[in-house]
Amino acid sequence: MKKAFLLLADGTLFTGHAVGAEGCAIGEVVFNTGMAGYQEVLTDPSYYGQTVCMTYPLIGNYGINFEDYESRKSWVSGFIMRELCEYPSNWRCKLTLDAYLKRQNVVGLAGIDTRTLTRRIRNAGVMNGLIYTEGYEPDAAKIEEMKAYVIRGAVKAVTCAEPIVYPSDTGETRLRVALYDFGVKYNIERELCRRGCEVTVVPAFTSPEELLAGSFDGVMLSNGPGDPVENTGIIANLKRLMDSGIPIFGICLGHQLLSLAVGAKTEKLRYGHRGVNHPVKDLDTGRTYITSQNHGYAVVGGTVPEGLARVRYVNLNDGTVEGLEYQNRPVFTVQYHPEVCPGPMDTAYLFDRFVGNMEQAKGGAPVCR
């Protein structure tokens, strides 16, 4: 096997062997603690610009299938694992992980001590890194480029170019939903379609006036990558959308963008939340849910404007904000992923709540709480 290397911005060097495409790739190095779901991680647009280290030691053991993609392609800058399974065993397997990474031109690295890498990121915080294959050694200029690397223009890079319509799965259209694509995962569309919704995925920069002219019953704000504060145009659009009174449900980046639109602030976490076992408490009911998460930024609780919104969900590990309830409006947002597959399905009921809000707005069923 060809050797491959990971050089961190602090000078730490890891040596392993090449997986996937050969070359040199710069990214922000993060870790994911899920024991399964590497295909969903690779195709989640929220990982745009990032090099992902999987903490579970054996990756690739069920291969890649054609049903579990979360978007049209892989968005990661690089992929790191302890051990690559070269002979996957699963009846749905169509490709090995190595073959998929080659197809997607993703530079990978295996055979390193991922526990040591994870501890370094936890202690020092996320940092930039450079994966390179033997024969692609970086020069001084490339190393300086890696150190100065910042993820910019992420939403613009991942959003769709034109609206895409997905029909209801039930045979009849119960409600019509506009889904802002900030880096949407397919499972958000699937959860809405199976509840009788016709979903129109719209580009991230669609104006609220254009959207409201479409006679939609509700608006979904999707997940996505990057620093939320750089999306000033989208934030201004969401502020106008809030004033319309249309039911809104936001997930992850959508949650952060809407909070910024009403005057709250966000902050970058030391090493983020990326995994499928994060405990979140509902402050209204006292119930704790196990959730799937993938984010590096969070809403600062003390900045949420009183009288307009309140914190309803908090993370039991570090106390960070996990969801907001907007008062006197059919609007709520969460930081975690209720649509996740694989992972816990504890919070899929939030889609039912969103459907209830839309039906109430139409004069139908009462709002779900």
Order of helices and strands: EEEHEEEEHEHEHHEEHEHEHEHEEEEEH
Taken as a percent bin, the fraction of beta residues is: 25-35%
From the spread of the alpha carbons, the general shape counts as globular
Average per-residue pLDDT, rounded, comes to: 96
What is the alpha-carbon Rg in Å? 21 Å
The CA-CA distance between the termini, in Å, is 56 Å
Helical content class: 10-25%
Model regions low in confidence, pLDDT < 50 over at least 5 residues? 365-369
Kindly name the structural category: alpha/beta
Sheet with the most strands, sense and barrel status:
10 strands, mixed
> Biggest sheet, strands in spatial order?
10-12-11-13-14-19-18-17-15-16
Number of strands: 19
What is the number of helices?
Answer: 10
Written description of the protein model:
The protein is built from ten helices and 19 strands. By secondary structure, the protein is of the alpha/beta class. The strands form three sheets. The chain has a ten-stranded mixed β-sheet with strand order 10-12-11-13-14-19-18-17-15-16, with helices on both faces. Strand 17 and strand 18 form a beta hairpin. Helix 8 crosses helix 9. 47% of the residues are buried. The model is unreliable at 365-369 (pLDDT under 50).
